[in-house]
């Protein structure tokens, strides 16, 4: 195999190759000088700046020490002098003990030691130990965004900031003029500052956000203070002099006012909203010493409680709850340890409570005028004002008190299941299996219903009690005390008044050894409730030891056993009337 023959040393080919190599080396050198990064020049031995106004550079890094913190700016181009410096396409890094900040900005300029970064600018803060992003922000537009003086930040444009980790999650809108000191604390002296609560979780949020006129907050917005606050809530809003941010709560320590979309307006002596777990929303707002009112067609409705939990589902009131409503010129008042008012579906209220209803627990009491009802649990449909009361029920009216089983109705008419026991203020009692209480009338039914007073015991399928009158419209059986023993009565209708018992329709009276029948009988009793006189009318019939006969009317005195017939009489007997 023959070796490759090369041209001689003085061949023109070698001169051309050498010239091409020299040209390529020169070209690469010039290109490298134009594109390679350049350090920011220092000073000469005489102290003169090496970087003049006409100096330029590309792809460099500038580092400044800001007390205990260090700022590093990477740039694409740099131009100007040491006193008037301009960087373009800047990526910055601020290393602090509390966090590591990253930022990007189209331009950054330094004049007399003060840095100004322009928008649009992006910010991030990372945990220095884990490099996990704790929050991020952005300044929109093209105007100057941030002024930086010795570690002090001044926002020249509004900042949108989002906290991403921990209980401080949420979004903040800081207006132009916001500041951040060397310790990392944000401050706004002139708002509005707007905070949007985090969204998410299994149900609707209660606290949606806040707007304030002034703010200071520690890094990450875990703690802070706002002034002149208006909070947006589901179904309403509240206004407070201040709000405090803590790792576990947002609280309003000063007296506050609130409004609800269902018409309630009022005040409270402070409130709090527990911060949710990461990934969830604010589910409840708790108010202390709650006082509210709203207008109804008949007047003003009032609501008060020691504590209230405001949720998307409604209100949960606890501690000396007083709910007061207008009712036909008077007031209907509910007093209870706990009251739940449901406005919408959702947890934190009893699942059995329908929308549009309220329930009171812990032995609530309902009062109107001189009347009252007490029950272990009361539920009301708010639109119709119809109540359902759990057994046992205790009631009080002008005429007396009663106990019963479950009940339902409204303040104009109630129905209670038995067993029913009514104790009248004037003396006596009623018993039955059902009570209807309408205005001042008590109606008892049973198998049978019974009425008793001292030595008076009467019963029937239905008893009506109004004022001093006890009526038996569907039949009567019973006994009255008489001087010679009990007087037994039976009639189709009857009523007991103060000193009389009036019977009608197939009346039968049976004494000791005698029987009386008539269409109508009036029995008069004395102060000791003992029978003094019996007056009978209409087809009167008498049999027994007092004689036997029929007539139109008679008067009978059981004590002295005197019988006085009136009108035409047939029969025989003893005494002047025969």
UniProtKB/TrEMBL annotation:
Sorted alphabetically, the keyword list is:
Membrane, Transmembrane, Transmembrane helix
Give TM regions. Answer: 12-34
Q: Which domain of life is it from?
A: Bacteria
UniProt name for this protein: LPS export ABC transporter periplasmic protein LptC
Q: Which organism is it from?
A: Geothrix rubra
